[in-house]
Write a structure and sequence with these properties.
Layout lengths: L7 H54 L18 E11 L2 E11 L13 H88 L1
Antiparallel strand pairs: 1-2
Helix pairs in contact: 1-2
Length: 205
């Protein structure tokens, strides 16, 4: 803490600062709680999406033997053309929300392609979409955790440093000013007694 000025002006400054800290601390504490709850919520969704991805992949593996037919190259049809997202704000933090993955129209020769190709493309695109959603959820959790780290630091700064420092400064200044007032009153009484004594001497003369 910087060197404290033992003045009435500094006392007012410290009182104003303390009021400000005490006003902002509950807001920061609420933000911290909201972030903690949202991280738990996002992790729950993330786990659910990972399970869905695993289930979908296992389902695909059951008929993956069909992929040995190379008359249709599926890989280019499984790459998303674009990822559509929306935005939401949680405790002042902007997060991306996965809406859907968009793919190019599947183009292949209907006459020479196997009958299962349409279904295969549709089913294979589902885990691809889930993977994109998982990536966005993972990024969101990283952003939330970083914001929680910063908010926690601020809460600790207010609780453990700023508020105790301001209270201690107010205590020290009040004691000093009280002592100064007591000394001033004492000097005033001494001066008054001297004046009274001098008046008595002058009256006797």
């Amino acid at each position: 803490m910087a060197k404290l000025k033992l003045t009435k002006g500094e006392l007012k400054k410290q009182r104003d600062a303390l009021r400000q800290y005490l006003r902002y601390l509950p807001i920061l504490q609420l933000k911290k709680q909201q972030l903690e709850m949202e991280i738990i919520h996002q992790l729950s969704i993330l786990e659910e999406k990972r399970r869905s991805e695993a289930v979908k992949i296992n389902e695909i593996l059951a008929w993956a033997g069909l992929f040995t037919d190379r008359e249709v190259e599926l890989k280019p049809m499984l790459k998303p053309k674009s990822i559509i997202t929306s935005a939401k704000n949680i405790a002042g933090v902007d997060l991306s929300v996965f809406e859907r993955a968009e793919f190019e129209s599947a183009e292949y020769d209907l006459f020479i392609s196997p009958l299962w190709v349409d279904t295969a493309i549709e089913e294979l695109r589902k885990p691809v979409s889930l993977q994109q959603e998982i990536k966005i959820l993972e990024k969101g959790v990283v952003v939330l955790r970083e914001e929680l780290r910063i908010t926690t630091q601020r809460v600790n700064l207010f609780e453990k440093v700023k508020i105790p420092e301001a209270r201690e400064a107010i205590r020290v200044i009040k004691i000093y000013l009280g002592d100064q007032m007591t000394n001033a009153v004492g000097r005033s009484k001494i001066a008054k007694r001297k004046i009274e004594a001098l008046e008595l001497v002058e009256a006797a003369v």
